[in-house]
Amino acid sequence: MKAVLALADGRIFKGKTFGATGETSGEVVFNTAMSGYQEVLTDPSYKGQMVTMTYTQIGNTGINPEDVESGQLYLSGFIVREYLDCYSNYRATMSLDAYLKENGIVGIQGIDTRALTRHLRDKGAQNGIISTIDFDPESLVRKARAIPSMSGLDLATGVTCSAPYHWTEGLWDLKTGYPQVERKDLKYKVVAYDFGIKLNILRCLVSAGCDVTVVPATFPAESALAMNPDGIFLSNGPGDPEPMKEVIENIKKFVGKKPIFGICLGHQLLGLALGGRTIKLKFGNHGSNLPVMDMATRKVEITAQNHGFSVDILSLSNVAGLAHENLNDQTVEGMAHKTLPIFSVQHHPEASPGPHDSHYLFDRFVEMMEQHKA
Ligand SMILES: NC(=O)CC[C@H](N)C(=O)O
């Protein structure tokens, strides 16, 4: 069956359906990861976006019940060059097509994803629409232009958990799968703010020795401090950090009181709470093969990333310094507070999908909490 992708600037791509049928819209971004489409599909940070994979064959490892980053699929559309229905993986239990259908996610296959990616790279990420019911280019472009821009959208408070809970599952192991860790064996009490948190972040925190209590995005700082945690963690999440005023005010109350570690949206919110500003990038970084330098050690790590916004480090020059830099586009990849035990990264040390080069950052957080305790 026919499907069409129309971009707000008028460019049209004709393909075939896969997954659910109907009409869907969102900001179109490209992801350069060669594997891990299931983690991409379940990453809450993709809410409001349609993702095109630059890797050409998608579907060949099927879908399994373990490689999920949350309890549902958040992106609004999935765009691939060639969908493979014949999957092969010892853990797979269903095909990607069936998974998308079951979850109501509209996909499009058979389009020139290289041309689409180059277009987004040259013109910038923009809104688009996928339809399997309307094939009139003018009508589709009109609809794509009517979608609200990602800038100014608070999407994170809509994907957060509804009540606090404890997390005790550690990182996956080939022999044991996901281990359950006893709370008595976890030394550092961490309150983790959920702005759309990826499960592997929670597993990394547990495996690093943290007793994690996950709390909703607007959980009052006073109540979090009353738990007497050793550290505060600020998670990834979808949308623009700038309109999240209540959350930003809340984060300010931890500064100077507790060690803080932020990832992606959490890093951006921390930048705003410290008095800085954030900017929207032309097309951002989405993938699992992006080089980053740790400015303290001058070591280069290959990282997983998924962001469209960035912290303007110059706006924080009196408060925090550049701690990590993206070696492709020289954007801010991490910052460290000049005097307090506070740091954050734009990339995803939990990977999932991606290399594990940056796992050390969870140990850095633990060391920070250890020193602060002493
Ligand atoms: N993965 C994330 O946390 C993304 C943060 C933010 N929504 C951005 O696009 O920049």
UniProtKB/TrEMBL annotation:
Keywords: Amino-acid biosynthesis, Arginine biosynthesis, ATP-binding, Glutamine amidotransferase, Ligase, Nucleotide-binding, Pyrimidine biosynthesis. GO terms for biological process: 'de novo' pyrimidine nucleobase biosynthetic process; 'de novo' UMP biosynthetic process; glutamine metabolic process; L-arginine biosynthetic process. The keyword Amino-acid biosynthesis applies. This is Carbamoyl phosphate synthase small chain. InterPro entries: Anth_synth/Amidotransfase, CarbamoylP_synth_ssu, CarbamoylP_synth_ssu_N, CarbP_synth_ssu_N_sf, Class_I_gatase-like, CPSase_GATase1, GATASE. It is an enzyme of class 6 (ligase). Belongs to the CarA family. Its EC number is 6.3.5.5. The gene is carA. Residues 1-188 are annotated as: CPSase.
